[in-house]
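hey so i finally got around to running the thing on that chain from the lab meeting. sorry it took forever, my laptop kept dying and i had to restart like 3 times. anyway pasting the input first so we r on the same page abt which one it is
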Amino acid sequence: MNNVIDLDNKYLTGKCLAAMPGIGDERFDRSLIYICSHTKDGAMGFVVNKKIKEFSFTDLANQLPISHLKPIVPMDLYQGGPLEKIRGFVLHSVDYLKQDSVIIDQNIAVSSSIDILTDIATGIGPRDNLIALGYASWQPHQLENEIINNTWLVVPSSTELVFRTKDEDKWKRAIETLGIDINRLSDFSGRA
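ok and heres what got predicted. didnt touch it at all, straight out
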């Protein structure tokens, strides 16, 4: 199974981006994005702190060919990003790996098959998981330029932050890991 990203050239792969106040794009206001891939060709990741309110995992499972032998455990779905909002991805712990799983770092992988959704629905899926519809991506050098222009803060990721922190606290906690008081951040970005 050749599903491990080249860790020697991973750029920001496996890190998180915390949106700066005043980002100027309401889709990313106070967002925390887990970066699954960052290379010279661009970047891709998932917003991990914005729940979808209009649609649930049960709704999704009822639209897919998933066996309903047991009641489906209620779970949230996340707005993974503004691109391909009907495409589903699962960020998950590496205790669960299938042929389509791509290992991002030592703790987190991503899968997109119906098998993982079936396993989650039946209670035999990964210990930690987050189901995202859609994703965010950047063209070559676009993310680097946005970071230079103070649009994003790069923060370390952890399974605790991505999977176990309350969604409303993820953005603040991520910034605090850098030793920054969010009350001192300006709503205006730019460089001095």
